[in-house]
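FAQ: What does the model actually see?

It sees only this:
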Amino acid sequence: MTTFTAFLDQAWSDHGDRPRDVAERLEQGYALIESEDQIAPFARLLAHVDGEHLARWRDGVARLERLRRHPRWSDDGDGPVFVRRLIAALEVASGAAPDPALDAADRAHAHAVAAAAMIAQNKIATAIGHLQTALAAAASGLPERDPAVRALAVAANNLAAALEEKSPRDAGETVAMLAAARASREFWARAGTWLETQRAEYVLAKCHLAAGDAPMAQDHAAQCAAICERHGADAFERFFAQSVLALANRACGNDDRHAHAKAAALAQYARLEAGQSPSCESTLRLLT
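And it is asked to produce this:
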């Protein structure tokens, strides 16, 4: 018999290409839940598929509500927190008013998840509003291990990346892009490892380049490269760090530094493992 862990892993693996199939398959997941600790990860996948991928807000809320009647439900632990916040996320994403009983951490988490869903559906203006609401709710402070911290990091990173690629992008969107990139750096420093932090510095550098602020781009690119050096990053991470450092120095008119970083990026490109090159091709073209 399939275990809950195997079922969940397979669903995560398949959901990007076949979200509707996975949504149907998740109905089988309720019977596989064997402990209260499995409620939260199952709820996260339910909300992600029904919300971010399919925009089935009411269906998602109903399926999350069913977890509260599950035999393994407990009023203690992470399950109730995740279910409460994910229900709120799907409700506000649908356009409903937030539950006034939610506390600041609940609101921050719910609106961050809603922002991520709107980004996936290319509703950028709505995503900006949700992220701004989430950051305002988080301004009073979030406990270090609160899951809202990671939700904010993810949503802010995704919004910054989406806006950096958007063309045309108006002045308000540029302001929102930089704010999202800064928030991504702040919250990944709390929720992730050095790897997520240096990637957030990379996004900051790219966003400042897109905004026309080459000196700030150069500063964040240098920090990205320094983190890679400090932690012995692999060639893949170093390629991107040196590439954005080269682009920032070129924009600043620093010809010698540009040439040095470009050479370093190309050297890292030559060391990539099999299968990594395709992800680097578009960046490689920017260096030529």
